[in-house]
Amino acid sequence: MSLNALPALSMRDRRADPQAFARAMGESYAHFGFAVVRDHGLAPETISRALAATKAFFALPDAVKRRYHQAGGAGQRGYIPFGVEAAKGASAVDLKEFWHVGRELPDGHRYRPFMPENVWPEEIVTFERDVYGLYQALDALGLELLESIALFLDLPADFSKRR
Length: 163
Fold this sequence. Notes:
There is one protein chain. By secondary structure, the protein is mainly alpha-helical. It is built from 5 helices and 4 strands; from the N terminus they run E-H-H-E-H-H-E-E-H. The strands form 2 sheets. Strands 1-2 form a two-stranded parallel ribbon. Strands 3-4 form a two-stranded antiparallel ribbon.
């Protein structure tokens, strides 16, 4: 692998030859500290629906959006208003607003006490379906990438799924 050219790794290659993809991904991390992945396979409609739902939410009046801010939640779920969050150690706040969604865990899951419930705005009726649908697709893609990292490190492919 050339140190001058960051390769764009194809998920199609991962699905065709997981070992070769894992090696290429691991080498990318070793040389560059990260990897670029293309051909992710996420349905364009899934992305478009989530984008439309989030645009609709962020177009709402500030007072409406702020109803979904979870004060004291450290930004783990829901709406984070503009100018509230700051990077660790920073003296100035970030100039952004965002929505945070996370994995929904079943009752009794060992991590349930540590992960708050998702918050869903009532004003956008498709928001939960569309935004969580994209989250699930990205989560599944992430698990595939974690399998590749595990293979590169000579760990069992399901290492990241173990509880």
